[in-house]
Amino acid sequence: MDELIDPAFLRGSELFENQPAEVVRAVLTQGQLLEFGPGDVVFRQGDQGDRLFVVKSGVIEVVAAPSDGSEAVVVAYLGTGEVIGELALLTGSPRSATVRSPEHAEVFAVDKTVFFDLMDVLPAFARNLCVVLARRLETTTLKAPRAVSKQLQGNLKYFDLATVMQTLIGSRQTGALVVSQDKHRVAEIFFFRGNIARARYRQLIGDDAVFQLFQSPVEGDFSFTGRDVREEEVQSEISMPAISILMESVRLQDELPMLKERVSDPGRVFRQKAAHLSWEEPDTIELAAAVWSRLKRGASLEDLQREVPRSSHAIYRTVIALLDGGQIE
């Protein structure tokens, strides 16, 4: 088996990154490569921990059922080289979450007996495991997760974009999340140490690009590969912390359908009715002026969304405010 499996995914994992070549060969020889398709379960919450798993390719998702009996939710995604299940082997406790494949994944499994044999006969393996667990304990104590470079990729048909981004934020990633359609890049979100520093979505940039990702039915493939970037190379164009802009994006996404109900025909042409623009919100006066100027000759919401570089929610809200104020018709 060691001749058939490229060991790169093991060398890129936190548990095996500092292991000697003979340890990696021993693990590959005694483990098993498993393939999972869309919806396949690797293990379920409550199962006994009888194996350790390392993601070789693709992505797996961690699904947790809250103790109050409410519906299980996806809490994280794990990519190439990431390890799951080692704590259950050591503690003997049941699995604390369900792990499954959203789309397609290859997962390398090491049985419990093999795991403990490796610890007994390979001191380097046991030492590195202690280092990994100590880091995790330190991380938990300090409430500051240690950034381990991730690799995630898949089709958004199978993944929840908000959870993908939350995973990158929570694991303090640095790198670019890219969304492509028909091999053409349509969006790029650059993360630096778990914060969103830059964003592009079609013609939009900054906050509005992040917002629009949740206001449009985004389809296609996504990919993320962590990388090292010096702090002095990063110039942020996002106005709020990552978790805040993510929560705001979801809020605006939920609110947009109600705004669209107010103006059910996006092709309806609006025109100025008042002689001058009257607007009392200083934070949005530039947007209101941009919309107002285009309504002089007449424009629909479809036109405005093409011409004004702001999110759909912002444009709908502005048009409705002008309508309610009797300034356009």
Strand and helix order: HHEEEEEEHEEHHEHEEEEHEHEHEHH
Q: Rounded to an integer, what's the Rg over CA atoms? A: 25 Å
Please give the order of strands in the largest beta sheet: 9-14-10-11-12-13
Quick check: average pLDDT? 88
Low-confidence blocks of residues:
none
From the helix content, strand content and strand pairing, which structural class follows? Answer: alpha+beta
Total E-strand runs = 16
Overall helicity: 25-40%
Largest sheet: 6 strands, antiparallel
Count of DSSP-assigned helices = 11
Range of strand content: 15-25%
Shape: elongated
State the end-to-end CA separation: 72 Å
Question: Briefly, what is this?
Answer:
The protein has 329 residues and is an alpha+beta fold. It has helices at residues 8-11, 21-30, 86-91, 112-121, 123-142, 161-170, 206-215, 242-262, 285-295, 301-307, 312-324; strands at residues 32-36, 41-43, 51-58, 60-64, 73-78, 83-84, 98-100, 105-111, 151-155, 175-181, 184-192, 195-201, 204-205, 221-226, 269-270, 299-300. It has eleven helices and 16 strands.
Overview of this protein structure:
By secondary structure, the chain is an alpha+beta fold. It is built from eleven helices and 16 strands. The protein has a six-stranded antiparallel β-sheet. Helix 4 (about 110-120) crosses helix 5 and helix 8 (about 240-260) crosses helix 11 (about 310-325). The chain is elongated and about 85 Å long. About 35% of the residues are buried.
Identify the notable features of this structure and list them briefly.
alpha+beta, about 325 residues, 4-stranded antiparallel beta sheet, 6-stranded antiparallel beta sheet, 16 strands
